[in-house]
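call fold target=YkgJ family cysteine cluster protein
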Amino acid sequence: MTLGFVVDLGTALGRKGRHQCRANVNLNAPNLLLPDGIHSSVGRWKCVKNCGACCFLDPDFREPLEPILSNEDFALYMSMVGPDGWCIHFNKTTRTCGNYENRPMFCRVTKEQQAKIYGTSEEDGDLVAVESCMDHIQEVYGPESKEMRTYADAVAVDLEIEDRDDEQGTWVEL
């Protein structure tokens, strides 16, 4: 049985969450216990083609970067922001990076990097990376977008909720 559930994964991990993420609920999935009665069997983080949400760099659109990046990396980041907020290396037609092989470290997503940036354990790194990507996709393309559905399917996000109350999320029909 598969149902839809919108849940703020940031809150589930004990962090201040900004957005709600939509995920498939697989009631037969093996689970990893998370706080607040939320169980998860999230697939490993991966990048999907034809997305590029992470390439929308407008600093007003993202959480503050100064505490996360070194002064040198922050200056490099700001130099990559185009007039429309998109990375100057991002091709919006093909949705590919023109500097992929030489992209800076802050453009590379690993569970270790996500754990370091957000102060979580490396075991939670995949969940943090998945949440981060879902946040960016929702902000750039919307929660009901083709990109969001493609990403959720690609990372096999499965959630099972126990003793859910209205503050933890909302059931939605898929």
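return ok
The two ends are 12 Å apart (CA to CA). The first strand starts at residue 2 and ends at 7.
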